[in-house]
Amino acid sequence: EGIVSCKPAVVGRYVTVVIPGENKILTLCEVEVYGAGVLGNQSLTELHLIGSNLPYQGHLFHDGATFCDPMWSSKDATVSCIQLGYPGVNVEQWNSSYFGNIGSSSGGRTVERRYKCAGTEGSLQLCPQAIGSDTTCEKQNAIGVTCQPYIRLRGLSIPLEGRIEVYHRGSWGTVCRNNEESFETSARVACWELGFHDVLHQSRWKTPRAVGKISLKNVKCRGDEKSLVFCNRENTGCSHYWDRYVK
Fold this sequence. Notes:
The protein is mainly β. It has helices spanning 74-83, 184-194; strands spanning 2-6, 10-19, 24-30, 48-50, 57-62, 65-68, 90-94, 110-112, 144-148, 151-154, 162-168, 171-176, 202-204, 214-217, 244-246. Strands 4, 5, 6, 7, 8 and 9 form a six-stranded mixed β-sheet that branches. Strands 10, 11, 12, 13, 14 and 15 form a six-stranded mixed β-sheet that branches. A three-stranded antiparallel β-sheet has the order 1-2-3, with no helix packed on it. A hairpin with a 2-residue loop joins strand 5 and strand 6.
C-alpha cells in the first residue's frame, strides 16, 4: 500500500493487482467521496445518535430534534449508518423510541421524515422524501438505528470493555496476540472500529476463557487501518490463553 495520484486529481491509498496469465497490472485506488445536498430546507450534515451508551446506536438526532418515520426501512437505516461513518456494517432499524423516552436533549421535538432511500446513497439528504414530511409527531415514535461494526466486546456486562470478537468468514471468533506490549496499537484500532476515541487499557483476557473459533491470530496493526481484519497477522502460535481484552 502507498499513496498514488489517481487521475483525475484524486489521491488515495492503492493496491496493485497482477492479473495471472496476462502481462497486465491493475491499480485500484481507495478514495473518499463526499456528497452535498439539502433535504427540504435542512441540511443533515450534523447527524448524531442519542439515547444509548454505545456510540454506534441510538435515536437519530439533528438540529435539536429527533425524527419519526412511519416508513422507516432497512435501506433508510443503512444510509444513515453510512452518513454517520459506519459503512459496511450490520444494520438494524428501530421505531417507537426503542432507546427510551426522548428527554430534554431533543427539546421535546420529534419531526416527521419519510425517506425513500435506495440504500446506496451517501447521506439521508440525498434520498427522496415522500410528501407530508416536516410535520411534528409524537416523541414516543422516534426512529433509531444500530450500526453494529463487525467487531464486538463480550464477557462482561459493562458495554465499554470486554474480550474482543470479530465477525470473519461467516462467524464470530476471538482475537489473540501472544505478546502483551505489541498489541497496544491494535487495541487502538479495535476501539476506533467500535466507534470510540481511544483505548484506555488492554491486556490478555483472563476469565472465563473463551471456547470455539479464533478469528484473527497474532494481530499486529500499524495504526492507520480502519478494521482489525486489515492488520497484519500470523496463523500460528496463538491460543485462547492469549485472547485480547480492551477497555
